[in-house]
Amino acid sequence: CLYNNSHNTVSLLKHNALIESWRDGLPLSNIWIRSLTADPHHSMMKHLSEEYFHYLESSFANNENTQNLIDLVPMNIIVSQSGQWNSFDHEWSYLGYPIDAQFVFFRGLYYFFNLNQTVLLQSYKETPDWTIQRVLIECFSNVGLDLESRLVLFSKNEDAIQEEVLENKAGQ
């Protein structure tokens, strides 16, 4: 277990041991890597992130317990051969503040970009002044959102989540 919730302090993270059905397909993150490798341009990233945001909006609109959607990131979405998206790894709930599609969109893109910088560098090789922050802002803008007004809040919230995870790792 990576998370120790046996201590007496109040935790903002709740771990729910789940048994989930096997989903056949590829992780969305792998599909993004393939797509960006084949067509390494900002327009491809905009298209991919737009599909992802619409999926998040639908998931949040159709789920009563949105706290369990904290890890609805591209690495936790399986795309079937028919093109259907199925999420998994809903074992974590965040109880600290309301989770919304915009925050999870930020998390998903941020971690994808950080884990796949080589692919991202290929996509933006013609514009060397681009940064992960700039790509995030552009992806948000593409779906009609203003990340700049919420970037500090999202960063603080993500830091709080990561701090909570680190404080509660087994053995500490």
Biggest sheet character: 3 strands, antiparallel
Number of helices: 6
Which structural class do the helices and strands define? mainly alpha
- Give the helix level as a range of percent: 40-55%
The radius of gyration computed from the alpha-carbon positions, rounded to a whole number of angstroms, is: 17 Å
What's the shape? Answer: globular
| Strand order of the biggest β-sheet | 2-3-4
Uncertain stretches:
1-9
Instruction: Report how far the terminal alpha carbons are from each other.
Output: 12 Å
Order of helices and strands: EEHHEEEHHHH
**What's the mean pLDDT score?**
86
Proportion of beta-strand residues? 5-15%
Q: Give the beta-strand count.
A: 5
What does this structure look like?
- The longest helix is centred in the N-terminal third of the chain and has 20 residues.
- The strands form 2 sheets. The chain has a 3-stranded antiparallel β-sheet with strand order 2-3-4. A two-stranded antiparallel sheet has the order 1-5.
- It is mainly alpha-helical and 172 residues long.
- Helices cover 47% and strands 8% of the residues.
- It has 6 helices and 5 strands; from the N terminus they run ββααβββαααα.
